[in-house]
Amino acid sequence: MFPSDEGKRYSMSDRFERFECLPEDRRRAVVDAAAEVFGDEDYARASTADIARLAGVSKSQLFFYFRNKRELYLYVLGALTRRVADAVVDEHWYEIDDFFEVMRYAATRKASFAGLSPRIMDFFVRAFYPGHRDVSGVLDAFMTDAVPTMVRAYLGHVRWERFREDVDPMRVVRMLVWCGDGYLHEQLRGGGELDMEAMLSEFLVWLDWLKRATYKEEYL
């Protein structure tokens, strides 16, 4: 799902209607298989034959639901994004109205999810470095839209008035994203591996720094 472009979102939903009508276990098998293959290989080398084999379907069945590899990839991106959001935003989420506490809660739950679902995290790490023309433009737009979409969808209950009057909260949100981006680049440069626990520790430090730098004194 790509909230930045409503027309494309609906046409994509219609296009995948047949796949969405499948039982959940069959859909999940395809998505999990695709996450594994796309997470292990870059987009160009990822094999749809391997995805079909891991999912327990024929390649012709796979392309009955998706016209090409690009459509499959974009569907999986949306499905996995929703899965992560469902794992992070639980019944306790909306009880937390402090921005930095919400970010702490989200980061902790994401790290826990990553430990339980490493294949999905591998998929998103590769998506962070789109290199193929088939998907690079869409992924760039997806990443650009992610921040305002997250704020609209999940942070409407936050008490933004706790920030100082001279602080734009959206800049704080983007700074956290840039910190995460920079950390990923540093860790993955030269083929390194991402340590989610180490990243979580760093992220919590950034939260404390930014809170002290941007909140009104009475909320520190």
Automatic annotation (TrEMBL):
InterPro entries named in the record:
Homeodomain-like_sf, HTH-type_TetR-like_transc_reg, HTH_TetR, Tet_transcr_reg_TetR-rel_C_sf
Q: Which residues bind DNA?
A: 47-66
Does Thylakoid count among this protein's keywords?
A: no
Q: Which keywords label this protein?
A: DNA-binding
Signal peptide location: none
Q: Which PROSITE patterns match?
A: HTH_TETR_2 (PS50977)
Superkingdom: Bacteria
Q: Which GO terms describe its molecular function?
A: DNA-binding transcription factor activity; transcription cis-regulatory region binding
**Domain named HTH tetR-type: residues:** 24-84
Q: Under which name does UniProt file this protein?
A: TetR family transcriptional regulator
Q: What is the lineage of its organism?
A: Bacteria, Bacillati, Actinomycetota, Coriobacteriia, Coriobacteriales
